[in-house]
Design brief:
The chain is an alpha+beta fold. The termini are far apart. It has helices at 63-73, 81-96, 105-119, 121-131, 137-159, and strands at 11-19, 24-31, 37-43, 50-52, 58-59, 102-104. It is 48% helix and 20% strand. It has two domains: 11-43; 50-132, no CATH class.
């Protein structure tokens, strides 16, 4: 493993532990050249379907791309990195569990939006505004109206 501080390849593992319900390994490493310590994570790579974009292009599945989009939507919100990673894990389980070899990006986007809606309404609206590419303010207001109606319905149910 290459040291992120000095670039040397002579590093060694000084500690390993299993994390995330036995699905990942966290390794503490030590660079023999500069004596800096750093952490790496190891997880199995599942077979994920190819993602079909709106324009018909096909891309490989990218956990990092989903993580970046969610992180941007959740910026300056009371949402922990752990909550975001749990949502990405859930989306990976859903997409990885599909029997298809290809999945439309819209299916993934809907899973992301559904998870965000439960997690934080502001983050949901931020993500939706980019994901749905609203053409005008009326489309945006309609989305907000639906969100408010659904939230008010849940509040009324809880009051009963």
């Amino acid at each position: 493993m290459k040291c992120p501080a000095c670039g040397a390849t002579d590093t060694r593992v000084i500690d390993s532990r299993v994390i995330k319900e036995n699905t990942e390994i966290r390794r503490r490493r030590l660079c023999d050249s500069c004596t800096k310590r750093f952490t790496t994570y190891e997880r199995t790579v599942g077979t994920f379907p190819a993602v079909i974009k709106k324009d018909g292009r096909r891309e490989d599945w990218s956990r990092e791309k989903i993580l970046r989009g969610l992180s941007k939507a959740c910026e300056k919100r009371p949402i922990s990195v752990n909550q975001i990673e749990q949502l990405v894990d859930e989306i990976e389980r859903l997409v990885g569990g599909l029997a298809d070899t290809e999945v439309p990006a819209t299916v993934i986007g809907e899973h992301v939006m559904s998870g965000l809606r439960k997690l934080d309404e502001v983050a949901y609206v931020r993500f939706a505004s980019v994901y749905k590419s609203f053409k005008d303010i009326d489309e945006f207001i309609n989305e907000l109206s639906d969100l408010i109606k659904n939230r008010d319905g849940k509040i009324e149910e809880k009051a009963k």
